[in-house]
Amino acid sequence: MDESPFGDHTSQSESCGTQLLGQPAVLVNKFEDYLETALNISVESTMEINQVVASLSQATKEAEKVNIRSQDLAIRKLTEVMGVLKIQRNESRWSEEAEIQTSGILRCLSNILRAALLHCRNVNVNGVKRVFSITENLTDIVFQGKVPGETETQMERKHWNITLKNEETWNVANAFSTSNTCRNCFYLSLRKGKYSGLPHDAVISTALFEFDENPFPWLGHTSEIKTMVLGFKTAESKANGDLLGITPEGAEITVARKEKETSTFQLAMGPGKTQTYTTGGFSFEVNRNTKSIYIRVIDLLIS
Question: Does residue 236 surpass a pLDDT of 50?
Fold first, then answer.
C-alpha cells in the first residue's frame, strides 16, 4: 500500500538475467537513429510531438538495447513534451489528438521502465523515479479533462494499469464500492463535515496504480513478491485544474495474488515450542502523516 508511488514501472520476471553482449551494430545504430531523430525535433506543434513520441517509442521498445544514457536522454525529451502538453491543457487547447499522445507517452515510459529494471544488480533507480514523476504529471493532465461522475479512465500497458476517477466528495464512498468480482479491490473514505478540510462540493481525483510485477526496486526483488503491487494518489481538483494532494481518512485494499494454480500459500511457524507465532514478510510505503495501518491476512487452515 502506497499513497504515492512516485519519486521514490513494468518490470519483467527475467529482471536478474545477464546482459546481452555483442549486439549487431546495425540494430544498435537503428535504435540510436530513432533516439537521435527524436532529440532533434522541436515540440512546438502537434505533428512534431507525434513524431517525437513515435520515434521514442521505436527507440525504446527493446529493453536490452536501451542503456542508461539512452534512458536518460529519452526521459529528458519526454519531460520537454510534457511541459508543452501542460501548457496546452492550461490554455484549453486539448483535443482527441492530445489524448492519443498521452497514450503514446505512456508506452514510451513503460519501455523505459522495463529497460531501467532489466538487470536487478544494476537498476537505474534514478530513471525509475523520473519515469514515475512524468507518469504523475501525465495523470494530472488527463484529470483536467475529466468530469465528476463520468466513466473511469483506464490507462493500460502490458504489465500495469492506471485507473483514474473524478468524484464529488459526497459520492466518493459509492464510487469506490466496487463489486465482489474486482481483482484488486480499492475502497476510499474521506473525513466528513468540518473535519474534512474540504468544501462540500469539492471534486476528488484518485489514481489507482496496479502492477503485475514489482516496479519499485527498493521494495525487494520481484521474484520474492507473490502479490500484485498497488499504489494510489488522491487530490482535490481545483476549479483552475490544479491538483492539491490530500490524505484520505482511510483506504482499504485487497491485493490479488499472482499465483493462480492454488488457493493456498505457505506460512512459516516460529521455531521451537515457545515460538509458535506465524511469520512472514511484506513491504509497503505510506505517507509520513499516516497515523495508523491495519493489516488482515485471510488464511485457510488445513489439518
Answer: yes
The amino acid occupying position 153 is T
At 178 the three-state DSSP class reads coil
Cell digits of residue 61: 521498445
Residue type, 4: S
List, as one string, the DSSP characters of 9-77: ----TTTTPPPP----HHHHHHHHHHHHHHHTS--SSHHHHHHHHHHHHHHHSSGGG--HHHHHHHHHH
278 confidence band (pLDDT: 50, 70, 90): low
Q: Is 121 left (phi over 0), alpha (psi -120 to 50) or beta?
A: alpha
Give the strand pairing for 203-211 and 153-156: unpaired
- Give me the half-sphere count of Cα atoms (radius 13 Å) on the Cβ side of residue 43: 23
Q: What is the pTM of this model?
A: 0.73
Distance CA 125, CA 94 (A): 33
Nearest to 82 by CA among 68, 69, 98, 93: 98
Task: Give the DSSP letter string of 74-113.
Answer: HHHHHHHHHHHHHHHHHTT---HHHHHHHHHHHHHHHHHH
Task: Look up residue 26 and give its amino acid.
Answer: V
Across 293-303, average pLDDT: 57
Please compute the mean of the pLDDT values over residues 180-199 and round it to a whole number.
75
Q: Is the distance from CB of 41 to CB of 75 less than 8 angstroms?
A: no
Pseudo-torsion of CA 94, 98, 100, 104, nearest 10°?
Answer: -150
pLDDT for 112 beyond 80: yes
d(CA 124, CA 116): 5
> Contact at 8 Å (CB) between 218 and 126?
no
